[in-house]
Amino acid sequence: MKTEILNAIQDEYPDDFAWCYGCGRLNTEGNHFRTGWNGDETVTFNQPSEEYTAIPGFVYGGAIASLIDCHGTGSCSLALHRKNGFEPGSGEVPPRFVTASLNVNYLKPTPQGALLKAVGRVEEIHPKKWKVFVELFADETLCATGEVVGVVMPASFMK
Amino acid sequence: MKTEILNAIQDEYPDDFAWCYGCGRLNTEGNHFRTGWNGDETVTFNQPSEEYTAIPGFVYGGAIASLIDCHGTGSCSLALHRKNGFEPGSGEVPPRFVTASLNVNYLKPTPQGALLKAVGRVEEIHPKKWKVFVELFADETLCATGEVVGVVMPASFMK
Questions:
Q1: Of the candidate ranges B12-16, B52-56, B155-159, the one whose mean pLDDT is the lowest
Q2: What number is the average pLDDT over the span A93-99?
Q3: Phi and psi for A74 in degrees, rounded to 5?
Q4: Which of A24, A138, A157, B102 has the most C-beta neighbours closer than 10 Å?
Q5: End-to-end CA distance of chain B
């Protein structure tokens, strides 16, 4: 299984918007989630570090929510970027999304030590508002599902 | 404003279940969220550290989701413990909940540097399944709302 994202949308975010704890390439303390296309689906891989414990042996739900969240905004960005005619790696600056809502259903305990894979399907619900349906697998086991509504970053996020 | 929780439900979790990255008192890398009663509402305070950035100046949405998540399961535990006749500090072991679902609506950007306060109202929907409605304030500003459904920890969480 290919588990590396060669052309991640997060590589293309402008420096000012690349500090996200989940997926910002410039946040040295963060998780550096990387989100790319796999055909018409989006994918992010992550192996949570040991401190992200819920009950010993199982991954912290907040870490799963974070992965789904960043996978969602990254997927929105990928999708609008593609609609605009671009792919990550092209050098064009993609639109930056923020999360309007995040829903996570925890179907079963997510074992620590497994490679997690978030898979997304993206749907446009408004030119500046996209929805992503996410499935979260630990190895091959579906452990959680989620929905993220992302919106193009509003001016209120500019300092 | 009182911003310390004297008797947190997390103080009462058995050692084996006190390793949660969000709220486990034994997780040295974690956030140590503390959830207590304030009358009939539940409350958790937290000031996220600087690395929990979304866009510079604003708190990472995953950190907000984590706070709401742990506040939710802690609130469920408080509520069922009270139903059973106990308050945190009594020395009785409370029931440990895990998250079945987590919904977060991000209403406005949450500024970094502010003290965050999660306030919860708890509702029993089944003897082993409780719902918590959460409001997340930065200082006095409502920045996010959430709903957490918690269930008494099933046997599948025992290694």
A1: B155-159
A2: 96
A3: -65, -40
A4: B102
A5: 42
Instruction: Convert the pLDDT of each residue in A7-57 to its tens digit.
Output: 999 999 999 999 999 999 999 999 999 999 999 999 999 999 999 999 999
DSSP A11: G
3-class DSSP state for residue B55? coil
CA-nearest of A41, A107, A27 to A79 is A41
Q: Name which of A60, A104, A156 is nearest B102 (Cβ-Cβ).
A: A104
Q: Do A55 and B22 touch (CB under 8 A)?
A: no
CA distance A82 to A110: 32
Helix (H) or strand (E) holding B61: helix B61-83
Domains annotated for chain A, with CATH where assigned, are 9-158 (3.10.129.10)
Answer yes or no: do A61 and B69 touch at CB < 8 A.
Answer: yes
Would you call B109 helix, strand, or coil by DSSP?
coil
Q: Which residue has the higher pLDDT, B41 or B157?
A: B41
- Residue B45 · residue B5 · CB < 8 Å: yes
pLDDT band at A158 (very low <50, low <70, confident <90, very high): confident
Identify the closest residue of chain A to B14 by CA–CA distance: A55
* CA contacts within 13 A on the Cβ side of B118: 32
Amino acid at A15: D
Check if the beta carbon of residue B78 is closer than 8 Å to that of residue B84. no
Asked if residue B159 has pLDDT above 80, the reply is no
Write down the pLDDT at residue B53: 96
